[in-house]
Amino acid sequence: MSKTLADFVAASSWADVEAQSHEARRSILNFFATALGSARDPVVEAAMRTLSPFSGVATSTVIGHTERMDALCASFLNAISANLLDFDDTHPDTIIHPAAPVAAPVLALAEARRMSGREVLTAFILGVDVECRIGNAVSPHHYARGWHITSTCGIFGAAAACAKLLGLSAEGVANAIGIAASQSAGNVENLPSAAKNVSVGNAARNGLFAALLVQQGFEAAPRAIEGPLGWARTMGGEPDLARLLDGLGKTWEIAENTYKPYPAGIVFHAVIDACLLLRERIGRRADQIESVIVQGSALLLARGDRPVNNARDARVSIHHCVACGLLLGRAGVTEFEQETVVRPDIAQLRGKVRAELDREMPDGAARVTLRLSSGDVLTEAVISPRGSQAAPLSDSDIEEKLRDGVRTGRSDWDADRVIDAIWRLDAADDVGNLMQSLWPPPALHHRISN
Contact at 8 Å (CB) between 62 and 435? Predict the structure, then answer.
């Protein structure tokens, strides 16, 4: 298993992945959108203050800032920033958010080592394939046991991608994956807290660390994932090797990627869409809502039937998503911030929402029923929400998401400059120059900072 993946990564070239490069750029564009959207978040700034005294040579950009840190620190910061708002990309079969743990270290390493855009895209596509294929092999029991799959599998994508960038042999890639297996961590219980972001940041940083250790001669057990006491069995059971290897090099996991229109858990998007449709139908009668019933799968209820005490709770709350859709008619970053969460009218409507299990509803779908004081009962069901594979976001949707991220994240980066650079990433000879070209002019930065 490990050897087969390593052979595949080491042998693959730009010619093998070029057909997937447009989707890869969409994913990286979305990565920048979400990272810029939370670049000034207190969690990111606290992590910057923590790491800054310990950073080595400042080689790699912290997205949304003009500061640089060493590649390991930048990997950690950019991964948590991209993952913080629950707004990043999603691989539907595993619910892995592929870009944050892979794009962050790939870009940081490429900037430090002055690598090309094609090298970045090649490594990124391969890294996403590795993390999602390993995720496929252990799903759904791995996540069901409480492992946060973006973190636990993301580190394998990061390690493989960085090993590819460093030009390691197939044996070296296998060793990097094996070292990553010793560092894989993150649990679902921590999802409503910043601890979730720490494990995503560690997946990015430690994947890079694994590849760098191998470059200096470190080795790992050849079956660190699939061995009798390896990663797969200790963290979820017997791996499904068919799901891991079928179509390797012919079908690509990046092609399955989806992008969120709302900064909330992906299982809540159908709830939001249904409520937006109901809002259109009730017009100005929101004050007549007596009760709301949301019906969905066991996954929807397990993830979102919870009290809301803060903004993090709101992003994984059926009740808050209902309130955003019905009362506000929007579900952007602002609607999930603390100021909105504590509004009395929002809290009051959350209290009228009841979640019910419907075993016939697929994961990701929802049915919402309103009862009004007039006696009217209205229902909307959404099976394929906006942003899903059946209703994907367009390139221009993702571009607008990035522009919104710059605004809501209070960044001084220029959105259109970032958008143009990512679409042209395959033509970049030096990713270091590309990243620095995204910084605001010094005079502008000084004026905004003061």
Answer: no
Determine the Cα–Cα distance for residues 51 and 61; give it in Å rounded to an integer.
14
Q: How far apart are CA 18 and CA 24, in angstroms?
A: 10
pLDDT digit string (tens) for 157-190?
A: 999 999 999 999 999 999 999 999 999 999 988 8
Question: What is the rounded distance in angstroms from the CA atom of residue 247 to the CA atom of residue 256?
Answer: 14
Contacts of 235 (CB under 8 A, 6+ apart): 138, 142, 145, 147, 152, 184
Q: What interhelical angle do 170-181 and 195-215 show, nearest 10?
A: 150
For residue range 274-298, list pLDDT tens digits in order.
Answer: 999 999 999 888 999 999 999 999 9
What's residue 241's pLDDT?
A: 84
- At 342, list the tokens: 């504590």
Q: Which CATH class is domain 266-382?
A: alpha beta
CATH 3.30.1330.120 in the chain, residue ranges = 266-382
- Top CATH class, 2-261+393-444: mainly alpha
Phi-psi region of 220 (alpha: psi -120 to 50; beta: other; left: phi over 0): beta
Distance CA 303, CA 188 (A): 10
Q: Where in the chain is the domain with CATH 1.10.4100.10?
A: 2-261+393-444
Whether 33 contacts 158, CB under 8 Å: no
pLDDT-flagged residues of the chain (< 50): 446-450
